[in-house]
Amino acid sequence: MESGPLPWEPCAVTNPATVSTTLTDDLIGRFAVAMRDLGVGFVRRYHRLQVHVAQPLPSAPSLIVSNHGFGGAVDLNVLALLAALDDLSDRPVTLLAHQMAWTFRMGTFFDAVGAKPACEASARDAFDAGHHVVVFPGGDIEAAKPFKERNRVIFSGRHGFAELAIDVGVPIVPIVTAGAGESLLVLDDGQRIARYLHTDTLMRCKAMPVSISIPWGINVGTVGLVPYLPLPTRLETSVLAPVQADEGEGAGTYAARVQDAMQHELDRLTSRRRLFG
Fold first, then answer.
1. According to the model, what pLDDT value does residue 103 have?
2. What is the DSSP letter of 223?
3. Domain range for residue 250?
4. pLDDT tens digits, one per residue of 105-129
5. What is the DSSP secondary structure assignment for residue 138, as one 8-state letter?
6. 198 exposed, middle or buried (CB, 10 Å; 0-12, 13-18, 19+)?
7. Is residue 164 scored above 50 in pLDDT?
8. Mean pLDDT for all residues in the chain
9. What is the tally of structural domains in the chain?
10. Contact between 137 and 118 (Cβ < 8 Å)
11. Which of 10, 119, 138, 273 has the most crowded CB, counting CB atoms within 10 A?
């Protein structure tokens, strides 16, 4: 005869709230993965994504440094990068994203697609787990750049990523995408608006871009956080050869070399490009 729990042994009690939270997180995770796959397929077909590979990704973990096209949560360059990595590596990838996603309680969604808050601790944890790590040093300033600067790589003097690569001992793999800046019209990066609204201090958001897009028309700050219908610009992504730090090279110099290599490649990709590809 099978006996039940002894009187002095507490029975396992499942908290209904915990079950509900787990189910909700699972549904959000499934939705996030489906949206990621949908986005990757979208840039492959609608934006006719072309990927050029100068050299295969290193077999060991590396720091992948890329440029923003336009937007934050919705950036065609991020989707193009993910599409390229799907074809180039079986190694897990951790993408460092703006803290705002977790501030607005969207962390479960971003966690499900391999994103983590952009900080040194997240990067080190990912390297310890054997992942490639993706970083966009330009942040929101580069992501909000106006149309006239769409073909510029803007790091604003940031070189923390280079310090990390030197300290951990991993190579930097630059990946550059061209074309996303033509998917809408950005009139101004809105840095003055961000300062006026104090979003730079309240949410670490230094730009509130003024843009014209479909279906939102003229908009301040929202497009890029919410989806928009991009114009059918052709995207080109170029995976460059790994860049190693020279012996005794400082992080600032190393970061500048990486940025220069990326700008040179972006210039090459856009030199013969017609508007919208």
1. 82
2. B
3. 17-179+237-270
4. 888 999 999 999 999 999 999 999 9
5. T
6. exposed
7. yes
8. 90
9. 1
10. no
11. 138
